[in-house]
Design goal:
The complex is a heterodimer.
Chain A (H helix, E strand, L loop, with lengths): L8 H47 L8 H16 L10 H34 L2 H7 L3 H20 L2 H19 L2 H9 L3 H35 L2
Helix pairs in contact in A: 1-2, 1-8, 3-5, 5-6, 5-8, 6-8, 7-8
Chain B lengths: L11 H11 L4 E2 H8 L3 H13 L3 E8 L2 E8 L1 H20 L1
Antiparallel strand pairs in B: 1-3, 2-3
The chains are: A mainly alpha, B alpha+beta.
Amino acid sequence: MEEKNNLTAERSLEIITEQIARNRKDVSRSVGISLYVAGLCTMATAIVIGLGFYFTPNGLFYLLYIALPFIIWGISRYVKRNETPAPSSFIGTMVKKTWITFAIFAIAFFVFANLFDILMLHTESLEVYSRMVIRPFPIILLLMGMCVTITGYILKSRWLVWCGIIGGLGGFFWESFGVTSTLFSRFAASLDNYCGVTQGLVPGIIIALFAFVGLTLPGMMLKRQKQ
Amino acid sequence: MFQPLDPLLHSELRLAIMSLLIGADEAEFPYIKEQTGATAGNLSVQIDKLSAAGYIEVEKTFKSKRPCTLCRITPQGRQAFVQYVEALKSYLEVK
């Protein structure tokens, strides 16, 4: 771009529009990479935890979820190491704050739900526990879907909006109404024998599935669309 | 009636720099160079002109031991940009 002073009004307007659109594109690309990485990490972690539960009745696998935000952050930074950093802008800040809000709510709820469940398990009868137990995943999936949808609106990406709605609401209903438990009870010889599996493996599969729909897929599309 | 256009902003490269900075808190020199496609020398001259007019401020700093030039728009520059867009509207409305 060279210095030209004989600009027409249309050309001036075109330059302004172009530069603003470039900024949105840069933020979208950066968000696309982050969503893609977050989706793949979540899927991998969920599957590892699910399989861990399946093969060894060890609750320690669950702790991997606490490490997940750090794993995502580290890998995202590594993937973006060679990219010219996009300047912080109003759009970028809005997206960032949306996801920081999600992280605060999701981590706090996850910790609270687990502490509550552990306390109930050790103080109440199994019958009371089964009625009072808080399942964190439906809520976390719902929060995730909301954040993906809001990000989609900010970045004007229809893909993100729809993936957020399908991923969030789908994951929430699927998990909270025990669709998977029903399927297991129908297809498994005895639900009692599969109780441990339903508690451990299935949430992992559901999280992996909806992380793909809500994070990996829109991230992939955003990356491809904005290149 | 046409409103006068600010001659400092009525240049392709300077307008591109201002349009980039209007939506960002601050931007690094390599980023502006990449986005505008200008040469480093030309960009540097235009940034100096905008800086001298008080439209942008330039901060020379270091980022992991490497020199880094940060540009950000000033309130005066923001106001000039808004006035420029308003003036531009009067041209487009007549057409």
